[in-house]
Design a protein that fits this description.
Blueprint (H helix, E strand, L loop, with lengths): L4 H36 L6 H8 L2 H21 L8 H7 L5 H22 L1 H11 L9 H25 L7 H37 L13 E11 L4 E10 L2 E7 L8 E8 L4 E5 L7 E5 L4 E5 L2
Antiparallel strand pairs: 1-2, 1-7, 2-3, 3-4, 5-6, 6-7
Helix pairs in contact: 1-2, 1-3, 1-6, 1-7, 2-5, 4-8, 5-6, 5-7, 5-8, 7-8
């Protein structure tokens, strides 16, 4: 008798979970623990740095090793009399929000490993030493650290497959569909957390380039576009180089600073987007020109 397709997928979920838990064990109980022990002696790197590299890996490891894996194992042992995993995954899904923290921190963690490996040879040696062990399978710490980042998308794929293979009458149908929906929301949640992080990071860089002017710094602003522009002076028929930042609520008309200490631009004019009008000009002498008029004033600009 051939195994039903959905059981094969449930077994694949269990097997990948076992492999995943041993990967988490390596990250938390071997790399993190040993690097932390060395950091405490004060010879390699500050303890804070080790904590920043590994983020909340300990919570993730404990959750999978002590809760999710044992529950899955129990399920697969009872499969013949109770063929279902949907309810277990529903219990798992809310905890996966913990990954948002880890995923968000990942790029910074990799940068820290690189930076401190250059700064501290003993730190680099200890990592190299652990990487030589059989359990590392010739892979780097960075490679192992990527695994949690890829785990939620993996659950999503496996569960999608599982739901697809279930018969409409299956006792696990409702639970599995609800579990998939929950996992999908969590995957979106961690992507949204990363996107929001990046948005704020980019916004902050723009504010620094503008010299952190008080009335401009606002975390809810969104940068839509920025770039160089020529300002046309009708008085003497000449153009001068300016720079525009368009946010969701304002247009900043800036002058590039000659001496770039601190800020890169000086804000000359701030126009509110509310009530702003843009009109294209047909000017033979200056092609690609347009007028921007706001409550404050009107600018005649030329694009490239």
């Amino acid at each position: 008798m051939q195994e039903p397709e959905e059981k094969k997928i449930a077994l694949e979920l269990l097997e990948t979970e076992q492999a995943y838990v041993s990967r988490l064990h390596l990250l938390d109980q071997v790399f993190y623990t040993e690097l932390m022990k060395e950091a405490k002696t004060g010879k390699t790197v500050p303890e804070e740095v080790v904590k920043m590299i590994f983020s909340n890996i300990s919570s993730i490891y404990q959750f999978h090793a002590e809760f999710f894996l044992p529950e899955l194992q129990k399920r697969m042992e009872d499969w013949n009399c109770n063929p279902r995993i949907g309810d277990v995954i529903q219990k798992l899904a809310p905890f996966l929000k913990m990954y948002g923290e880890y995923v968000k921190n990942f790029d910074k963690a990799v940068e820290l490993i690189t930076a401190w490996s250059e700064k501290s040879p003993p730190f680099q040696e200890l990592i190299a030493d652990i990487q030589k062990r059989k359990v590392c399978a010739n892979l780097t710490l960075q490679h192992h650290m990527l695994e949690p980042v890829q785990r939620i998308p993996r659950y999503e794929l496996l569960l999608k497959d599982y739901v697809r293979k279930l018969s409409p009458q299956s006792p696990d149908r409702g639970d599995a569909e609800k579990a998939l929906e929950m996992i999908f929301m969590v995957a979106k949640h961690s992507n949204a957390a990363i996107a929001e992080m990046e948005r704020l990071q980019n916004l902050w860089v723009v504010y620094q380039r503008l010299g952190l002017e008080d009335d401009i710094v606002d975390p809810s602003n969104e940068l839509i576009k920025e770039g160089p522009i020529q300002k046309i002076s009708t008085r003497n028929n000449s153009t001068s180089e300016k720079y525009l930042f368009l946010f969701n609520n304002m247009l900043l008309y800036c002058v590039p600073k000659v001496i770039q200490v601190g800020a890169e631009f000086q804000v000359h004019l701030r126009m509110d987007v509310g009530g702003m009008k843009v009109r294209e000009l047909k000017d033979a002498e200056f092609p690609h020109t347009f007028l921007v008029s706001g409550k404050q004033r009107t600018l005649e600009l030329q694009a490239r």
